[in-house]
């Protein structure tokens, strides 16, 4: 009897795993009854929350120490699950001992069923109330005094005291517990986890959005930087004067990479802008506005560290003995002082070349060239002249055929691209606006060589010729122009039997896109330098681009004869090479001056002579490395050409071979490559907008 009485009077205890079991049973009941609790957020708004997604996280959050404890009785009492009345006893235990968790009443008290409460209420601040480890230790001691027969597992107690306050760490809830905790304050039931494909697409879209945001931010920063240039160093009379003639690919390549603070730089050019010539054929048909491919020279020079002086003038002659350049004003309103001389210590000639007519009568008087913006504007005007005259009332059929016949001389990239752009203009725009004469439109491409695009691979040449013929462009190979009049072109070709035949080709527009000739200033300098008298195509230069027969004159671009094709790619690399060469020359001079100063003061500084000697040795090593400049060597980056019908050809080097491709995908590559090669962000944005505008609204067919 005594033993029975002591067993009945002993306090009821419960294991931590039984508490978890009771909580799980409570969750099942909450799901079954669809009970809701109301939680108050910090803003005071009361939001209904499902108990099924709320009970476990909130309870574990408040019981982070208590549930980690192992409160056990004798080994014989915990072999079976506790009765249902233990649930009430457990809640009452926490109600009567609130200090074991926090200074506020335990929220578990409000989870108990009540007849006069249809909804369960959990105050938001009480849920977030946390008890520190020290307070928990004190509370557990008090609980131990209240229940002497209960013993606390020291291992669990030490674990609780060392872990963080997060229930996912202290309780090792695992992934499902963390998900439930994150969704503790959700206003609806948890949604099923999306599939792997959907998650991948979601992260792909997020990465795309971030990339677009970064691109926009970078573009905005570049635009801001362009609009707010930094202060420049003013010219120093003690430094050498570097005069640059021209504003083409070679000159701009030099200016872009030159450290202008090392020299007093002077730029002379009759054209106060840099022109992106690869897209010039697109300007003739209105696909691209001409200002979209122009970059003002003053904008380029303003962003250099050292101030650069610019004169919009034309260099007429160079005196290599006196080291002066004679220039004359190129503006329309010339004043009394329009001719002057500029002295130089170093001179770079990058004036390019002019169009070659090969002495053929009538070419210069009746042809349109394609080298400058003015040429593209003139071609555009003449195209619309031919169209409007052909549509004039009462025009004869023969005259309409002549006016609608466009002839292009030159089968290089410029001629082929212009022929393709011209065909697109008539097929995409003129045919829709003036359908009654558009079927009379014809294009003839004349080339003296056996094939077009001679610098491309053989398979691309065949692909280009087949594509042009599919576009109804007549290709006349091995044909040489002999005479040009206002109405027709007289040419000589080789017939199928090998005999020469004379052709008379009527035309409305003739575009001459072949050959380069030296400019007057280059011809003048060639006559003054004896070593240049045998050169016919331009200024002969050595492997360092120094004009042969001189010591302080360099030449780049189409005016120089360096053994490479006269292309924009060659000129740009030559300018970059000269910039690197001049930068090294300035560093060399600075190092030599410093070495002389240290050597002269070495005997005066006996205390730190070892340090001075070490610095001299370091400077000499750097000087040897700087002086080791290899000669210029052209690196071919590939060739691109547009051939019409949204097709292009590309010859790109790949290791020891080439990748030759053509078609619509190559056309996208052609556009992206030229867009990236535009000089500035402003040019890229304007060109992209012009392409989109023409695609959406068509080309502008107005005359001006």
From TrEMBL:
The residue ranges of the External alternative NADH-ubiquinone oxidoreductase-like C-terminal domain are: 636-700
Enumerate the spans annotated as FAD/NAD(P)-binding domain.
Answer: 241-575
One of the Pfam families matching this protein, by short name: NDH2_C
InterPro entries for this protein: FAD/NAD-bd_sf (IPR036188), FAD/NAD-binding_dom (IPR023753), NDH-2 (IPR045024), NDH2-like_C (IPR054585)
Q: Write the Enzyme Commission number(s) for this entry.
A: 1.6.5.9
Q: Which family does it belong to?
A: Belongs to the NADH dehydrogenase family.
The name this protein carries in UniProt is NADH:ubiquinone reductase (non-electrogenic)
Whose protein is this, by species? Answer: Fusarium albosuccineum
